[in-house]
Amino acid sequence: MSKHRLFDEDVLVIGLGRFGAAAAMEMDRLGYRVHAIESDTALAERFSRKLMRVLSIDATDPEAMRQAKPGSFRVAVVGIGTSIEGSLLTAGNLVDAGVASIWAKAVSGEHARLLERIGVHHVIFPEAESGSRVAHLVNGRMQGYIEFEDGYAIVKMSPPQEMIGFTLAESDIRKRYGVTIVGIKAPGEDFTHAVPDTKVGEHHRLIVSGPSQLIEQLAARP
């Protein structure tokens, strides 16, 4: 039986180290048809049973890259981090092939600057981004944290004591803290959108949106 495909598209991932492999497997789970390039033969063989296609070639070599037909992909992800030169040469080959959306891992500010200069569309710092998320989660109050570039965040968190046993209208969190309770979820129950008469229990998890600094103030409450 064929996999149900939420995203019916072929994508290219280059480098199946920890970051590239995680991206490839998650995209495969979401339904993308993942084609990968990995120069390590043993690693390529391991993933050949899990992904649509895996080529064991040198992605820095333009001639070798022609086997993968990179120009036929709209999206490509460069997961190479151990060699900045290899990352840049690979990204350059994708730019030359006309890939419309190139994502690349950077290991330093200078690396990111060079990737952007040669034409990479999206540069990411996975270690820094993961570290930033962990910093917000270690207090135990937040169970999920997504922050956007403008300082706006969406968080899943436990309710502070001052909300427990009260409706959202009664606790008036929006007025007092400047954030919005978007929804509420209890174990074993469906997610529900928040309304003024939604009553908060200790077992609930809240979905909160607003400026990250204001959400942090709410999460710091006992």
From TrEMBL:
GO terms for biological process: potassium ion transport. One of its GO terms (molecular function) is monoatomic cation transmembrane transporter activity. Signal peptide: none annotated. Residues 8-124 form the RCK N-terminal domain. It comes from the Bacteria. This is Trk system potassium uptake protein TrkA. It comes from Ornithinicoccus hortensis.
